[in-house]
Design goal:
Helix Hairpins; globular; 2 strands; 216 residues; 434 Repressor (Amino-terminal Domain); mainly alpha; 10 helices; 3% strand; 2 domains; single chain
Length: 216
């Protein structure tokens, strides 16, 4: 993976297909992270510390881009990935590039793509429970709210496009598995919206709680 790392796109870095699900991306990231983390013995015996850190940073960049629906959509557009009935199809006329670089060649195929009808958002919900004035938006509270509404994780995942495993990490407060705060804030806002809760309060409270917790 570390050879010609910056010549690879995010999907190649994580070694997942272009139509990989959020759970597959999450799983690939966890495997790569375990290999290239600061205390990994395998990569430490092969790579210098600088090479290992560089590789790990590249893996984290790929994961953080692909795990969030909107950033993945924008990145797919840069790669020239068109939404088909399943998921992306690569147009060979498009040159893959790293973030910050200009696309060498643009394709006109995108102009020919039939746009899918807009998906109608789910109707707003009202949660039967709410955060009390001094209560934190813990993972346990989010799970309690979800169960109070009779919703499965699969339903939340389908509506938010957040992988089920990530939703489980949020509910169980797996600090070692949660993404960077900027992405976690977006995820918790989407979950709160899906549950009919105050998005800003839930997101801010949850992140404040997680920041105070040790990673181990």
């Amino acid at each position: 993976m570390f050879q010609r790392l910056h010549d690879q796109n995010h999907y190649q870095v994580l070694e997942v297909s272009y139509d990989a699900s959020s759970d597959e991306i999450q799983s690939a990231y966890e495997v790569a992270r375990d290999i290239y983390s600061h205390d990994a013995l395998v990569s430490g015996s092969i790579l210098s510390d600088h090479e290992r850190r560089r590789t790990f940073d590249r893996i984290a960049e790929a994961y953080q881009t692909l795990i969030a629906e909107e950033s993945r959509r924008l990145y797919d557009q840069r790669l020239g990935l068109a939404q088909s009935s399943n998921r992306p199809v690569v147009h060979e006329a498009v040159a893959v590039c790293e973030p910050g670089e200009d696309v060498v060649e643009e394709t006109q195929e995108l102009d020919k793509i039939d746009r899918e009808p807009a998906v109608r958002p789910a109707p707003p919900r009202t949660c039967p429970i709410e955060l009390q004035p001094a209560e934190e938006a813990s993972g346990a509270f989010l799970k309690k709210a979800r169960l109070a509404m009779g919703l499965e994780l699969a339903t939340i995942s389908e509506e938010t496009k957040i992988g089920r495993s990530m939703l489980e990490y949020i509910e169980t407060e797996r600090v070692d598995r949660l993404p960077a705060p900027v992405y976690l804030r977006n995820f918790t806002r989407q979950v709160a919206r899906c549950l009919g809760l105050d998005e800003e309060r839930v997101s801010t409270s949850y992140l404040d709680r997680i920041r105070r917790r040790p990673s181990n």
